[in-house]
Write a structure and sequence with these properties.
Layout: E1 9-15, H1 25-41, E2 46-51, E3 55-61, H2 68-85, E4 98-102, H3 107-115, H4 117-123, H5 126-136
Antiparallel strand pairs: 1-3, 1-4, 2-3
Helix pairs in contact: 1-2
Length: 148
Amino acid sequence: MPQSLSKVYIHCVFSTKNGVPLITDAIRKDLHAYVIGTLSNIGSYVNEIYSNADHIHILCTLPRTITISELISKIKTSSTKWIKKQGITNFSWQGGYGAFSVRSSKVRVVERYIQNQPKHQKKISFKDELRKFFYEYNIDFDERYLWD
């Protein structure tokens, strides 16, 4: 085949530095639009996005020309600059991230999960939510290095 084609869905999750609740209702919608634009510019399609006060969920496609870490870095770097321009000068994202593959038959399930984030966060903390993902995906982790 002379052409390289792919469709890889990634559910990205990461928090604000130290889990500080800095993402407000006032900037949430514009932040989502900004991240969608950033990802669109690198060839990624965003299926769903939602930012809680202290973390963000993004379901998007992974462009075939970059790595997951490059994708996350582009999101974090550009959105940090944008958020600081909105007047939240002490903003930064945590150093790490979670990235989970999503098969095409489960895309709608993950979209609904992200859409329901406001309800989920009333029942479960971000830390417990992320631990749950690690267990479901059978990812070994060390608590000492998860939170910053």
